[in-house]
Design brief:
Belongs to the HAD-like hydrolase superfamily. CbbY/CbbZ/Gph/YieH family. With about 220 residues, the chain is of the alpha/beta class. It contains 8 helices and 7 strands. The protein folds into 2 domains: about 140 residues, HAD superfamily/HAD-like (Rossmann fold), CATH 3.40.50; about 70 residues, DNA polymerase, domain 1.
Length: about 220
């Protein structure tokens, strides 16, 4: 497959998306000084469990989880998704409290069910060759627990989560903080993402991106 950059449009933003080679490729990203990975749906298969946790928590309040409507919010912090669900259901609830309930529910579930996705082979291939970090919309307690549970935490010099920034994806703050903590200039980083919000955040941070949905 070609490794040339492609200017792609996602949700109205022109993003420099790298056409990925096979997952085991060890030379494709040599032009970058730092690699940044989204977590949910990119390096860890967590999406089905997140949906299960939402359904469990929302069932307590007689609310429903509209998966179709929530796709556009992939990569958002939990409280923002909770806010959208509350609005969709026209409920009178505190989004931060609902998000906290969902986080508590999903932590227990994920430790039993989470598995790495194939992209983790890129992480392993570049370990020790480039600094790497995780930039996620999940809370730090969840991200740190999952990465440690799977024996993956040592691959990353930094984990930047929802509670580390004020402005979340599609704002660039998450990835800019990743670059800062790796000690790498933003324009020398490449981001691996599975969501439009994340790709937009990479663009705004001045970084190239790999849309892992193309792998």
């Amino acid at each position: 497959m070609s490794s040339a950059p492609l200017a792609a449009t996602t949700a109205g933003f022109c993003v420099t998306v790298i056409i990925p080679k096979p997952v085991g490729e060890k030379t494709m990203y040599e032009g970058y000084a730092g690699l940044i990975f989204d977590m949910d749906g990119t390096i860890l298969d967590t999406e089905p469990t997140h949906r299960q946790a939402w359904n469990e928590v929302l069932g307590r309040y007689g609310m429903r989880f509209d998966e179709q409507a929530m796709v556009a919010l992939n990569g958002s912090p939990t409280w923002r998704i909770a806010q959208a669900i509350i609005e969709l259901n026209q409920a009178d609830l505190d989004p931060h409290r609902l998000a906290q309930e969902k986080t508590q529910a999903v932590k227990a579930m994920l430790l039993d069910s989470v598995r790495p996705l194939p992209l983790i082979e890129v992480v392993k291939a570049w370990h020790g060759r480039r600094p790497m970090s995780v930039g996620t919309g999940s809370e730090s307690s969840v991200a740190e627990a999952l990465l440690a549970h799977l024996g993956l935490r040592h691959y990353f010099s930094a984990v930047v989560a929802a509670d580390h920034v004020v402005n979340h994806k599609p704002a660039p703050d998450t990835f800019l903080l990743c670059a800062e903590r790796m000690g790498v200039a933003p324009e020398k980083c490449v981001v691996f993402e599975d969501a439009d919000f994340g790709l937009q955040a990479a663009k705004r941070a001045g970084m190239d991106a790999v849309d892992v949905r193309l792998l």
